[in-house]
Write a structure and sequence with these properties.
This protein has about 325 residues and is an alpha/beta fold. The protein folds into 3 domains: about 5-75, Vcp-like ATPase, Chain A, domain 2, CATH 3.10.330; about 80-240 and about 305-310, 3-Layer(aba) Sandwich (Rossmann fold); about 245-295, no CATH class. Helix content is about 20%, strand content about 30%. It is built from 7 helices and 17 strands. The chain has helices spanning about 80-85, 95-105, 120-130, 145-155, 170, 195-200, 215-225; strands spanning about 20-25, 30-35, 40-45, 45-50, 60-65, 70-75, 110-115, 135-140, 160-165, 180-185, 205-215, 230-235, 245-250, 265, 265-270, 290-295, 305-310. The strands form 5 sheets. The chain has a 7-stranded mixed sheet, with helices on both faces. The protein has a 4-stranded antiparallel sheet with strand order 2-1-6-5, with helices on one face. The longest helix is centred in the middle third of the chain and has 13 residues, at about 145-155. It is globular. About 30% of the residues are buried. The model is unreliable at about 5-10, about 250-265 and about 270-275 (pLDDT under 50). It is found in: Nucleus. Keywords: Methyltransferase, Nucleus, S-adenosyl-L-methionine, Transferase, tRNA processing. Belongs to the class I-like SAM-binding methyltransferase superfamily. TRM61 family.
């Protein structure tokens, strides 16, 4: 959960209060962030929902509209926030984010530098990882993006864990105040090789750097620069394949001796269904019964970028 003020620490057992931020879940691909206000309402295709009915309910509750429709009220975790935040720039998604947090070896108490902030998708997860005693200093050269990011971190309760600065890290490097005290550095820049020398000065001995780049040419040039003061240089491409699982019916199906299968809304798939408790334990052929069908999502994301990690060499 998002680590905020201890008196308001979010959990699925905590009740929603006036002024809280909640994620309204309509379906897996339709969610929105809403600030609860006792006098407000939410109107969508499922009806009108009074915020006053939400107050006092625990996160995860199912609430109903005036005409019987329903939504779920979820706590704003970094994973959900990544799906609903405003896209001021191209963002990192969950597969890359989880990989970054792991390979940067980020734990509670770490000091992390990030450039650039963008929409703050990664920053939110970095903040949770360093909580409650660590801190994330994130920089963006675009002042309005930095202002918007600060507002988002205030909404999600992370302003005590994140400091947003306006700075051209490619041209100026990181502030000298961080020299030799940083555990991890993350770069999401058009020319990361220009910032790598400064990042190396910020890191503690054995500290870890990660650079995110969409093009392999950027990776090649960054790796050349990293070779001077870094070791254990590795590049990864994280590809995530999601599946849709639904109940459906087959239009036709041949028996065990047949070689063709019927079609469904998911396309051509084997005609199988799960047995009920009073039937045999094996799978049976039945063309007319509902069955659980799974297939790769047609909206699955492909390449997002390359993640290059490197460890600062220890001084001799």
């Amino acid at each position: 959960m998002l680590p905020i003020d201890p008196s308001k620490k979010l959990s699925f057992r905590r009740c929603i209060s006036d002024g809280d931020l909640v994620i309204v879940y309509e379906r897996h691909d339709t969610m929105k962030a809403v600030k609860v206000s006792e006098s407000s309402t939410l109107q969508n295709r499922f009806g009108v929902f009074k915020h006053s009915d939400w107050i006092g309910k625990p996160f995860g509750s199912k609430v109903f509209s005036s005409k019987g429709g329903f939504v779920y009220l979820l706590a704003p975790t970094p994973e959900l926030w990544t799906l609903v935040l405003s896209h001021r720039t191209q963002i990192l998604y969950i597969a890359d984010i989880s990989f970054v947090v792991m390979y940067l070896e980020i734990v509670p108490g770490c000091l992390v530098l990030e450039s650039g902030t963008g929409s703050g998708s990664l920053t939110t997860s970095l903040a949770r990882a360093v909580a409650p005693t660590g801190h994330v200093y994130t920089f963006d050269f675009h002042e309005q993006r930095a202002v918007s990011a600060r507002e988002d971190f205030d909404r999600t309760g992370l302003n005590s864990l994140v400091t947003v600065g306006v700075r051209d890290i490619q041209g100026e490097g990181f502030p000298d105040d961080f020299t030799g005290v940083v555990d991890s550095v993350f770069l999401d820049l058009p020319q990361p090789w220009l910032a790598i020398p400064s990042a190396g000065k910020m890191l503690k001995q054995d500290g870890v750097l990660c650079s995110f780049s969409p093009c392999i040419e950027q990776v090649q040039r960054s790796s050349e620069t990293l070779g001077s003061h870094f070791t254990d240089i590795r590049t990864f491409e994280v590809l995530l394949r999601t599946y849709e699982v639904r109940e459906g019916k087959m239009e036709s199906c041949q028996g065990d001796e047949g070689s063709s299968f019927g079609s469904s809304s998911f396309g051509s798939l084997p005609c199988k269904r799960r047995q009920t408790s009073n039937e045999g334990s094996n799978w049976q052929e039945n063309p007319s019964s509902p069955m659980i069908i799974a297939r790769p999502s047609v909206e699955a994301r492909g390449h997002t970028g390359y993640l290059t990690f490197a460890r600062l060499k220890c001084a001799a």
